[in-house]
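Forum > Structural Biology > Help requests

Title: Can anyone predict the 3D structure of NAD(P)-dependent alcohol dehydrogenase?

Hi all, first post here. I have the sequence for NAD(P)-dependent alcohol dehydrogenase but no way to get a structure on my laptop. I'd be grateful if someone could post the structure tokens.
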Amino acid sequence: MPIATRAFAAVAADKPLEPYRFDRRDPGPDDVAIEIKFCGVCHSDLHVAKNDLGGTRYPIVPGHEIAGVVTAVGDNVTRFKVGDRVGVGCMVDSCRVCEPCRAGEEQYCVPGMTQTYGSADPKGGPVGQTITQGGYSDRITVDQNYVLRIPDSLPLDAAAPLLCAGITTYSPLRHWKVGPGSKVAVVGLGGLGHMAVKLAVAMGAEVTVLSTSDRKKADAERMGAKHFLINSDAQAMKAAGETFDLIINTVSATHEIAGHLQLLAKDGTMVMLGLTTEGLPVFAMPLLWRRRSVAGSLIGGIRETQEMLDFCAAHGIACDIELIAPDQINEAYARMERSDVRYRFVIDMARMAA
Ligand code: NAP
Ligand code: ZN
Ligand code: ZN
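Reply #1:
Sure, ran it for you. Structure tokens for NAD(P)-dependent alcohol dehydrogenase below:
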């Protein structure tokens, strides 16, 4: 029996999201059926709903910060049982045989991961549809290998955004070996940025936040940041020159990065996380003069995502969230576009209209 699902979908780039119904597949032998309780609202959802990156196929149900409870499992499922608290992030499958997949870095799968929404779905996604549909919905069916366990100590609502914002910031912090003594700057205090601050602080780093105004200064300090800079303050930016080992850049729009590069110490790296499609003005001189790098990073693998969830449980870390009803999603997008986010909107599926 297909699983009747209530959702919110984008139907065109210039139209508000609207209620949408479809059927999820009944769990196959390796599948876990999940009742979604909460779904975080990532800026990537907005980029896709508004076709900022091109190629969006409508109608599209965004959402890849999913937290819920298992309602049924297939015959081969050993890792989960009915009633377990689980999460689903940005991917629901990958080829499993390429080098990145075998290394547990499925996000870099060579033929391409199957994203939670908007991907062609070779293994059968929603009934009668050819692309995956995401978490702004009350049900989802996912292969057990792409389902995460949410530790008991983490509330489901504040854990949901860890499935993207958490892992996307945890992975580069680990890759660039942040630890005690590291000096880390976080550019942009939104959903990703606030998790970067909390995680880097928990890893022992001295953290500085760079923001467009001083509106979020007190919050940054509460999250553990030691310093706060406004990135249009040329004097403060100059004074902070040659300081940071790692800059986590979470800005969601094309912006001037040359001024940020001189903040890096020798051998420092700026990691770009924002999904911007325009070119970045990167000049050779500030790079070569201090052997600096500009890099990118994409979410994280399944194994590392579980490690991140367990790390958050061990350190008592979760997201700062503002709960909304599903029909408030358009208002949330408008606020996100004004950077008025503190620090993640999370949809409460219990408030979905019947
Ligand atoms: P968000 O919550 O909207 O936060 C973005 C922050 O960037 C804002 O709060 C603001 O910070 C700053 N900002 C926005 N526009 C700016 C501008 N024109 N100039 C300077 N700063 C600006 O977004 P998010 O969910 O954290 O996502 C951030 C970006 O990462 C998005 O592009 C998203 O698609 C992308 N993303 C990438 C991955 C990945 O795997 N690489 C994963 C998830 C998301 P202040 O208020 O502090 O100035
Ligand atoms: Zn995301
Ligand atoms: Zn692969």
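The first strand starts at residue 3 and ends at 9. Residues 302-315 form the longest helix (14 residues).
Shout if anything looks off.
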